[in-house]
Amino acid sequence: MATVQTRQPNPGLAGKESGRTRYRPNPLRLGLLRGGLEIQQFFRTRESMIFSFAFPIMLLVIFASIFNFEIAPGIKFAQYFIAGMIAAAQLTNGFQTLGIQIPIERDRGVLKRLAGSPMPPAAYFIGKVVMVYTVGLIETVLLLAIAVTLFDLELPDTPAKWFTLAWITMLGIAACTLCGIAFSSIPREGKRAPAVVTPVALVLQFISGVFFVFTDLPRWMQHVAAVFPLKWMTQGMRSVFLPDSFANREAAGSWELSRVALILGAWVVIGFVLCVLTFRWTARDDR
Questions:
Q1: Which residues 6+ apart lie within 8 Å of 241 measured at CB?
Q2: Is residue 22 very low, low, confident or very high in pLDDT (cuts 50, 70, 90)?
Q3: Strand residues in the chain grouped as ranges (E)
Q4: Is 248 within 8 Å of 73 (Cβ atoms)?
Q5: 182 within 8 A of 271, measured Cβ to Cβ
Q6: pTM
């Protein structure tokens, strides 16, 4: 009588196959690796170094050297200007850099290739966030070091002010980064991105109290600036570097730190929603 032999599965092979089906790329790990690559690319790109890194330092040296006067008894313009310059640097690194960089990558097909790879989409955005935070923190330290060395900047003298500097920096960079990613969908071509993004960033800086005392600006300009995060970033930074007596010179007569946190947090949420709704992996011609 013939016997039927059944083929037993190879347990080792089965384990490997089940391992493959269970494997999922870790977005956080890949995002951190991607962030290291983004940082290397940033420091190797001359345009990024100039617009996002060297430009705020150059403005600090020029403006603080020219406007060497007191805006209030015992308060030099440099002490006021450093607050706005740190906030403007965060806007440049987050909003302006990504608003220009991403459309260029989209036109070159970089985003299309990444979208078709096994890399989770979240890893790409984590990499951008890592790059912006790294550059922003380094630039903040450099701005403070230059202001202290050349212009006798008085650093925060209490732990509370250092903490305020930390959370405004974290929230401000997050808001600017997400808004930059969302705004990157507006330029139709990568080569046109600087002409679209740069004027927006410059206008925000001029109306948000970066280059001038905010309450010296026309009232309508103050109202427009209050819609956007940069005005609140500069106001929060002033609470760190200026004495509490200067709060009387603010539009509301106080630093309004709770409102600063609320509005910056709201812009983080708004920026995230806009990213989800508007971000494109391919150029319009490829769709």
A1: 79, 80, 82, 83, 153, 154, 156
A2: low
A3: 70-72, 75-76
A4: no
A5: yes
A6: 0.86
Per-residue pLDDT tens over the stretch 205-239? 999 999 989 999 999 999 999 999 999 999 999 99
Q: Which residues contact 240 (CB under 8 A, 6 or more apart)?
A: 83, 156, 161, 162, 164, 165, 168
Range in 14-18, 44-48, 120-124 the model is least confident about: 14-18
Mean pLDDT of the chain: 87
Per-position b or e across 9-20, b if 16+ CB within 10 A of its CB:
eeeeeeeeeeee
Among 113, 111, 92, residue whose Cα is nearest residue 47: 92
Q: What is the largest CA-CA distance in the chain?
A: 110
| Measured torsion, CA atoms of residues 278, 282, 285, 287, in degrees rounded to the nearest 10 | -80
Residue 172: C-alpha distances to residues 25, 60, 185 (Å) = 30, 20, 21
Which tokens is 272 given?
A: 């995230």
State the pLDDT confidence band at 10, using cuts at 50, 70 and 90: low
